Every structure is written in structure tokens, then in C-alpha cells.
């Protein structure tokens, strides 16, 4: 049976690109590994944040568009994006969130303590301590590497048909159901990061796409050969995957699972050094070859953004 190693990336909708950078780089200390545009709407940035190299399982991406309406988190969406932090670092993160005025609360699930909070657009986030996964060697904004966010711990899915979503995770994607607690089913994959998926069983409001919501969640394929096998398997199981699309840093295919959530399967290679050196990731606007003739026009129309240390860090 084919099995995905876990989450490749998660993509969300937000309003302001600079505010987005200030939070994910300035507060959470993630690296902006790619500054590009939405290939389907080139007037909108596509920003990627992750660990030092943008390893699969660490990547959160954003379409920041000022004019989009506020969304509503609910069925047919990823409800919560969860990050893993090193054991013993929870108090560091509680202090850091307080320093930047981020309200949070603690919650328990499957014997683990989570710090739950929202980003400036209302996306639901969590931090949880785990041994799994390598340390993030990227150090920014006063966060030492032994306290830094490693990558995803996983995600909570809010499905309109949770049992069917659970069946897909287990019978198609190859995750293992490892338990049920109150209104959650938990699944695990074999990867070190992005390996824990909770499916919410209790009813929720219908999700509305917009700022502050997740657009899709992507699962890992080992390479192009594995990707083709995933597409064939999805067709065999009665899903309707898209054609395979070249996203420069991975190949992608998309399909809606029966609970309404947009799933993607993305290849691990070639990665973010496909078009710029590792030590320069995220420093320049990178465009696909077919948009290079429009570079000057795009650079004029896109808002100026930069990664910088926030004032609170210098106080």
C-alpha cells in the first residue's frame, strides 16, 4: 500500500503581506524561504515560510490579498495548524507570545499540552512539545535554535463527513488510526514532521473561504514516479484528481475529499533551491519563466515587503 510521509505544506489566505511576514518571521521566527507570486493570479504574492531549507513538513504558504473578504473556519477546511517545538521550550514560547501581545490558552489532547492562539488574520495555530523531528537550524529575531519551531506537528481537519475523511486518510493515504478521544480521531503517518492528523467528529458551522482560513493541505509524494502512482490510485478510488501541475518547487495535483476539504499531493523535490541558492532563499522576488517578461510591471504593482526584526524585539 502507498503511504504518504505526512504533510508537505499548508496554504492559507490572509490580507496584508507585511503583517503576515511580521508574524510568521518576526514573532514565530520562521524563515521566509520563497517570495513569489500566485501563478494563477500574478498580482498576488505567494509567500512560503519554513525551516532553514524549507523542508517538506515545515512549509506554510500564504496568498495575501488585501481585497478578499474575511472567511469563516468550519467544515471543508483545515481548522487548526499545529507546530512542534523542542521539549522544554513551552515556557519560552508562552513568554514570547505575551511579549508580542498574542493572546493564548492551553489545551490538552491525547495526553499532550498545546498552546493555542491565532495569527493576525484569525488562523488557528498551536504549539506542542515533541522529541520528534530535527531542530530548526534557522535562528532569527532572538529565537535560539534549541527553542525554535521545528515544523508542523500536524493539523486538525473539520470535515462535513468526518467518517469518510477518516476512511480516506487510512485507506488511501496510508495513515494509521491511533486513537479516539472525546470528539477527535487521531491518525499518524511515518514522517518525523507533519505526522499527526486529528479529525474533528463533532458538528461545526460550514466553512467559508476567505482571509483567515486554510485554502488547502498538501501531502508528501517521494518523487515524480510516486506522484504518478498517487494520481492513478486516486482515479482508481473514484476521486477526480487534477492534471499534474508544475509549481517550480514541487509538482502538484489537487482533489476534493468527500468531507469538502481541498487536498493536494506534492512532490518532495526539487525544493526551494531550484531557482536561488540556499543562503539567499526568500531575499528576491522569484518568478516562473513565463512571467519573467512581466517582472518590471509586477515589481511596480506588488506592495513592498521585507523581513525585519520587530520593535518589540529591541525593547
Automatic annotation (TrEMBL):
Domain VOC: 6-130, 151-268
Keywords, alphabetical: Dioxygenase, Oxidoreductase
CDD domains xref list: PcpA_C_like
UniProt keyword annotation of Oxidoreductase present: yes
GO molecular function: dioxygenase activity
PANTHER family: RING-CLEAVING DIOXYGENASE MHQE-RELATED
Name this protein carries in UniProt: Ring-cleaving dioxygenase
Amino acid at each position: 500500500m502507498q503511504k504518504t510521509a505526512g504533510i508537505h505544506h499548508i496554504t492559507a489566505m490572509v490580507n496584508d503581506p507585511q503583517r503576515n511576514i511580521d508574524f510568521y518571521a518576526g514573532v514565530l521566527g520562521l524563515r521566509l524561504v520563497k517570495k513569489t507570486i500566485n501563478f494563477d493570479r500574478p498580482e498576488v504574492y505567494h509567500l512560503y515560510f519554513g525551516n532553514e531549507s524549507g523542508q517538506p513538513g515545515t512549509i506554510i504558504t500564504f496568498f495575501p490579498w488585501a481585497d478578499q473578504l474575511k472567511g469563516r473556519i468550519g467544515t471543508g477546511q483545515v481548522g487548526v495548524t499545529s507546530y512542534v517545538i523542542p521539549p522544554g521550550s513551552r515556557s519560552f514560547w508562552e513568554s514570547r507570545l505575551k511579549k508580542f501581545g498574542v493572546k493564548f490558552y492551553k489545551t490538552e489532547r491525547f495526553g499532550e499540552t498545546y498552546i493555542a492562539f491565532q495569527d493576525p488574520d484569525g488562523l488557528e495555530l498551536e504549539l506542542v512539545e515533541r522529541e520528534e523531528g530535527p531542530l530548526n537550524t534557522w535562528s532569527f529575531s532572538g529565537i535560539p535554535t534549541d527553542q525554535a519551531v521545528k515544523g508542523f506537528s500536524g493539523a486538525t481537519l473539520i470535515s462535513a463527513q468526518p467518517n469518510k475523511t477518516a476512511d480516506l486518510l487510512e485507506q488511501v493515504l496510508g495513515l494509521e488510526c491511533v486513537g479516539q478521544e472525546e470528539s477527535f480521531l487521531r491518525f499518524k503517518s511515518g514522517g518525523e514532521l507533519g505526522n499527526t492528523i486529528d479529525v474533528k467528529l463533532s458538528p461545526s458551522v460550514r466553512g467559508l473561504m476567505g482571509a483567515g482560513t486554510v485554502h488547502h493541505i498538501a501531502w508528501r509524494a517521494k518523487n515524480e514516479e510516486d506522484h504518478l502512482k498517487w494520481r492513478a490510485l486516486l482515479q482508481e478510488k473514484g476521486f477526480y484528481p487534477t492534471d499534474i501541475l508544475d509549481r517550480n518547487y514541487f509538482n502538484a495535483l489537487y482533489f476534493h475529499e468527500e468531507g469538502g476539504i481541498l487536498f493536494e499531493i506534492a512532490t518532495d523535490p526539487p525544493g526551494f533551491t531550484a531557482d536561488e541558492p540556499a543562503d539567499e532563499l526568500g531575499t528576491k522576488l522569484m518568478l516562473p519563466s513565463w512571467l519573467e517578461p512581466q517582472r518590471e510591471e509586477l515589481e511596480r504593482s506588488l506592495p513592498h515587503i521585507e523581513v525585519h526584526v520587530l520593535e518589540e524585539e529591541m525593547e
